[in-house]
């Protein structure tokens, strides 16, 4: 089951790697680049989502899953794929084998790599971020193989979420006693196509939005890794700058030296230095990775603030696109 929006040539390559039969469905979210027409022209079962509701990955995946189950009620497993991905030739068989060998696994996923990791620093960072340690995991991304018996009682993906819908579903199925399993197998290739800083910043803002919404919705039951991320960007992006500002005003009105601010201000260069030291033996991008890692907390905070603002004003959220 494939979802896409204006993926163009990436979608063509994606569909070419999948079985061209009745169990392959493509769900399009308002593309205007001919993606829908291409899929139809090649005999793929297609769904064109209407614009009366917000386009989200969750909505697209649910539409595809419901279509498959309607036409093939006996399906046990469903592979979800984004239109910018190329599924490995052997992954479907390996995914099925893993779910059959682990009857308590609700979702399985393998390693994902970037098509062009050397194309930009941002592609390189995406390439590093995809893969989880082998074994039971907290959550997975949108490219994974799902057990119908696990996702159906959970209600599928929450269509109100503009990001983080995969982790939300993983949390629900884990509450029902299923596990999320990372296996030692090549799952496929992903084409992030992030070549500019603005794209990366937008992606980080979406990530912060997803973290904040997940924790706001689930509270103490949130995924531990996601709670840690919220604490990190809240400290580096909000708490520390706010403390520095308040301390600066206090020192100024008390006629005290502003040199006292050197200690809290030094935490940022110290954080940069710590990350640079960690990266310098692993990557030629060490300095730039350190800078981006420090900055990304502010981008994630911006996404969290966007979520809070929309929650307070009760405005309908729209997808945050970066390409």
TrEMBL record:
Pfam families: Glycos_transf_2
InterPro entries, alphabetized: Glyco_trans_2-like, Nucleotide-diphossugar_trans
Keyword Ligase: no
Chain ranges of the Glycosyltransferase 2-like domain: 5-111
Bilayer-spanning residue ranges: 230-252, 258-277
Superkingdom of this protein's organism: Bacteria
KW Signal (keyword) present: no
Record's keyword terms, sorted: Glycosyltransferase, Membrane, Transferase, Transmembrane, Transmembrane helix
Family membership noted in the UniProt record: Belongs to the glycosyltransferase 2 family.
The protein, known as: Glycosyltransferase 2-like domain-containing protein
């Amino acid at each position: 089951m494939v979802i896409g929006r204006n993926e163009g040539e990436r979608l063509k390559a994606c569909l070419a790697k999948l079985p061209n039969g009745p169990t392959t469905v493509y769900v399009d979210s308002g593309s205007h680049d001919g993606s829908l027409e291409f899929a139809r022209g090649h005999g793929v079962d297609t769904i064109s989502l209407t614009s009366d509701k917000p386009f989200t990955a969750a909505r697209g995946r649910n539409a595809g899953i419901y279509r498959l189950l309607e036409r093939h009620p006996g399906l046990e497993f469903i592979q979800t794929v984004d239109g910018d991905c190329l599924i490995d030739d052997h992954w479907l068989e390996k995914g099925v084998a893993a779910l059959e060998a682990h009857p308590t696994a609700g979702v399985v996923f393998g390693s994902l790599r970037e098509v062009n990791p050397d194309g930009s620093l941002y592609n390189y960072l995406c390439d590093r971020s995809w893969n989880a340690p082998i074994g039971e995991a907290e959550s997975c991304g949108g490219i994974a193989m799902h057990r119908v018996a696990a996702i159906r009682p959970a209600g599928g993906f929450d269509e109100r979420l503009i990001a983080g819908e995969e982790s939300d579903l993983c949390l629900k199925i884990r509450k029902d006693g299923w596990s999320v399993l990372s296996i030692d197998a090549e799952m496929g290739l992903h084409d992030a196509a992030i070549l500019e800083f603005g794209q990366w910043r937008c992606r980080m803002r979406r990530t912060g939005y997803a973290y904040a919404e997940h924790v706001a919705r689930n509270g103490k039951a949130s995924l531990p890794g996601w709670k840690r991320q919220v604490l990190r960007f809240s400290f580096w992006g909000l708490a520390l700058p706010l403390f520095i500002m308040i301390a600066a005003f206090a020192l100024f009105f008390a006629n005290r030296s502003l040199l006292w601010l050197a200690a809290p201000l030094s935490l940022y260069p110290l954080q940069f230095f710590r990350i640079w030291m960690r990266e310098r033996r692993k990557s030629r991008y060490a300095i730039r990775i350190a800078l981006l890692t420090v900055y990304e907390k502010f981008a994630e905070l911006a996404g969290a603030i966007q979520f809070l603002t929309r929650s307070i004003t009760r405005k309908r959220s729209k997808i945050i696109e970066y390409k």
